[in-house]
């Protein structure tokens, strides 16, 4: 066995209704002032309304920064940090999807009283130094796994995203409460769910850091996600399915936080940056094409995941046959969940494919993890196949 290390969030609370104790969980950490980082949709839907009285009862001061949008950029992070400093925040809560949780991580780092680093200075791997404020993450989508990853991704230009990767960004507590996901529309439920499935799949084939623990978590994550996505999408009030999806996304997050993702994500990022295709949907659009591209080198890994994906529907066969069933099932899953399956269906023009391929090749941090090397011509062919 190769030596490996494994890191994750210190404490995980998986329980429907647990967000109702958010104020108490903050109070237990000995703080007085809390900043909740979230997005405008969360506020407009009133998803925080029932939680705020608890802060008054716990004699805690709470403020809300609700300006996080999809693909947040520098200005968003800096505004949130300024708000945290202004109120003297002593604990940060990320409440929402991956964007809100990623911004919350950076606020916890950069708003610490002793922090002397800038946002530009912490991009990359292990550039963040010092301490951060206590951090609690409450995901409202079952997708990104950001509540258990040491990664924050920020949009830095028209078509560029950069990541801050540091153990400092791992939260103190991940709170998985499916009641907070009940209002998620079917399309968002499907896209975020497939995003989590991609995390599990790419962690399994990650070339440099995969290990027995990450692979074990990835398989269990995929089984939970595949076994519950239909109910979560088509019967969104099914709390049990929603809770299983949250746990599956979390386990997939733990897997890919330690065995990083690869070409599906590398090709998805430019779609979000240039055409604002939601990240989960971008992953869903590229997934079957990247799997077919990787099949020559990764068929045994895909075959090993096929039972988790297909369950009793799996038809026995040799690894190549199991791999084909695996890829076919994932390709059929996208339209079955009501999602578009072609780039042209989400507003991506054909003339942009070469530019997207050039953008994708900039994501070498991810591409090095892919089981098959991706050249510029390969990236273009993958976008053309997805078009």
Written account of the structure:
The chain is α/β, with parallel strands linked by helices and about 375 residues long. It folds into two domains: about 10-180, Rossmann fold (3-Layer(aba) Sandwich); about 185-385, Dehydroquinate synthase-like - alpha domain (Dehydroquinate synthase-like, alpha domain, Up-down Bundle). Helix content is about 50%, strand content about 10%. The protein contains 15 helices and nine strands. The protein has helices at about 20-25, 40-45, 50-55, 75-85, 100-110, 120, 185-205, 210-235, 240-260, 265-275, 280-310, 320-335, 355-360, 365, 375-385; strands spanning about 10-15, 35, 60-65, 90-95, 125, 135-140, 150-155, 160-165, 175. The protein has a six-stranded parallel sheet with strand order 1-9-6-4-2-3. Strands 5-8-7 form a three-stranded mixed sheet. Helix 4 packs across helix 5 and helix 7 (about 185-205) packs antiparallel against helix 8 (about 210-235). The protein is globular. It starts with 10 loop residues before the first strand and ends with a helix. The model has no long low-confidence stretch (mean pLDDT about 95).
């Amino acid at each position: 066995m190769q030596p490996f290390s494994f890191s994750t969030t210190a404490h995980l609370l998986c329980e429907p209704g647990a967000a109702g104790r958010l104020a108490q969980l903050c109070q237990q950490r000995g703080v007085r002032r809390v900043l909740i980082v979230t997005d405008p949709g969360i506020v407009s839907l009133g998803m925080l309304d029932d939680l705020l009285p608890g802060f008054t009862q716990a004699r805690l001061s709470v403020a809300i920064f609700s300006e996080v949008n999809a693909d947040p950029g520098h200005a968003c992070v800096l505004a949130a940090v300024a708000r945290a400093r202004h109120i003297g925040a002593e604990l940060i809560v990320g409440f929402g999807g991956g964007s809100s949780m990623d911004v919350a991580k950076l606020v916890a780092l950069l708003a610490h009283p002793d922090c002397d680093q800038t946002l530009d200075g912490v991009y990359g791997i292990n550039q963040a130094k010092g301490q951060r404020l206590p951090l609690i993450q409450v995901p409202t989508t079952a997708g990104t796994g950001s509540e258990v990853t040491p990664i924050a991704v920020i949009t830095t230009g028209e078509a560029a995203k950069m990541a801050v990767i540091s153990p400092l960004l791992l939260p103190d507590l991940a709170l998985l409460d499916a009641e907070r996901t009940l209002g998620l529309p079917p399309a968002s439920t499907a896209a975020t769910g497939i995003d989590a499935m991609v995390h599990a799949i790419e962690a399994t084939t990650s070339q440099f850091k995969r290990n027995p623990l990450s692979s074990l978590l990835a398989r269990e994550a995929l089984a939970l996600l595949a076994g519950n996505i239909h109910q979560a999408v088509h019967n969104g009030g099914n709390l049990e399915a929603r809770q299983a999806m949250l746990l599956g996304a979390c386990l997939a997050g733990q897997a890919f936080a330690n065995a990083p993702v690869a070409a599906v994500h590398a090709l998805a990022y430019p779609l979000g940056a240039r055409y604002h295709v939601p990240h989960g949907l971008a992953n869903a659009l590229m997934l079957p094409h990247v799997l077919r591209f990787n099949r020559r080198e990764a068929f045994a890994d895909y075959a090993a995941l096929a039972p988790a994906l297909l369950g009793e529907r799996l038809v026995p066969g040799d690894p190549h046959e199991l791999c084909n069933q695996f890829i076919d099932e994932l390709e059929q899953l996208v339209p079955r969940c009501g999602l578009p399956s072609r780039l042209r269906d989400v507003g991506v023009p054909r003339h942009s494919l070469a530019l997207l391929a050039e953008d994708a090749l900039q994501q070498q941090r991810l591409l090095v993890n892919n089981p098959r090397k991706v050249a510029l011509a390969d990236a273009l062919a993958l976008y053309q196949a997805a078009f």
